[in-house]
Amino acid sequence: MGHDLEGREVFIAGASSGMGRAIAIAAARAGAALILLGRNKAGLDITATLAREAAPGCSIRTLVADASDATALAEATAGTDLSQVDTLVNSVGTNIPERAFDQLTTESWQQMIDSNLTAAFNLSKIFLPLMRARENGLIIHIASTAARKPDKSGAAYQATKAGVLSLTHALMEEEWQNGIRATAILPGMTDTPLLDRRPTPVTPEARASALRPEDVAAACLFVLRLPPRAHVAELHIGPSQR
After folding, report:
1. Coil, strand or helix: which one is 206?
2. I need a surface site. Which of 35, 101, 114, 136 has the fewest CB within 10 A?
3. Among 85, 219, 196, 208, residue whose Cα is nearest residue 142
């Protein structure tokens, strides 16, 4: 669709790899200016390089911070003008190999809450006041089909992704009159580094039939391209071969 996002500024958290990286490349190719946030500087630099190769001349800034740490996130964003960001895409998330409920500890449970849910909260807290001031904004949180349909992804993963989904709906209910929209994208199994954290290795056949990060990026770009009058509450996307 060419450079139809030209003039838009998109903040992508979790941009060091996987879905966040694919979304960054797709948004750059569509003409958006980018601010990329991630914990892994090397991975973030690779994402920025790939996005620039896909869209020479694209404005890209990178910020290194853990979005689950409110203080670190505030410090990382303090010197950056975020007032023109019209879209927040939160692709922060993790899982652990010891994911069954009887394997969870207090520490691993808290780790999952911090990475998957608190990061979504911290990012939303930063951008909501700015979007209210502009009377316009779009927040996209990447959740998971596990938020709606329990599976073997683990109790903490399911609970935290369900929390992200509920948070997204709550933001929409509270903020639509301020011109802010909130969307949750719920991908099924996707071939990202997260697959390598499964307790049982994923078979080549299962990996081959999984979604690609580019598929999730395409779903995200669909939401980004909608006019302000249109709202997608949830977008489910999964592999066609099960």
Report:
1. helix
2. 101
3. 219
Decide if 3 is inside a domain: no
pLDDT digits (tens, 9 = 90+) for 16-27: 999 999 999 999
Q: Taking the CB of residue 146, how many other CB atoms lie within 10 A of it?
A: 23
Of the candidates 91, 45, 59, 115, the one whose C-alpha atom is nearest the C-alpha of residue 217 is 91
User: Against a cut of 0.85, is the pTM above it?
Assistant: yes
Residue that is written with structure tokens 């500024």 in the block = 9
Which of the four pLDDT bands, split at 50, 70 and 90, describes residue 147?
very high
Q: For residue 87, what are the domain limits?
A: 9-237
Q: 25 lies in a domain?
A: yes
With 90 as the cut, is the pLDDT of residue 84 above it?
A: yes
Catalytic residue among 157, 158, 188, 220: 157
CATH number at residue 63: 3.40.50.720
Q: Is 109 a catalytic residue?
A: no
In a domain, 230, yes or no: yes
Exposed, middle or buried, 94 (CB in 10 Å: 0-12/13-18/19+)?
A: middle
Q: Between β-strands 180-187 and 234-237, what pairing exists: parallel, antiparallel or unpaired?
A: parallel
Check if the beta carbon of residue 122 is closer than 8 Å to that of residue 73: yes
pLDDT confidence of residue 1: 60
Mean pLDDT, all residues of the chain: 96
Cβ-proximal residues to 95 (8 Å cutoff; 6+ apart), any chain: 112, 153, 154, 157, 194, 197, 198
Q: Is 106 exposed, middle or buried (0-12, 13-18, 19+ CB in 10 A)?
A: exposed
Query: Is 4 part of any domain?
Result: no
Strand extents, DSSP E, the chain: 9-13, 33-38, 60-64, 87-90, 137-142, 180-187, 234-237
Q: Number of folded domains in the chain?
A: 1
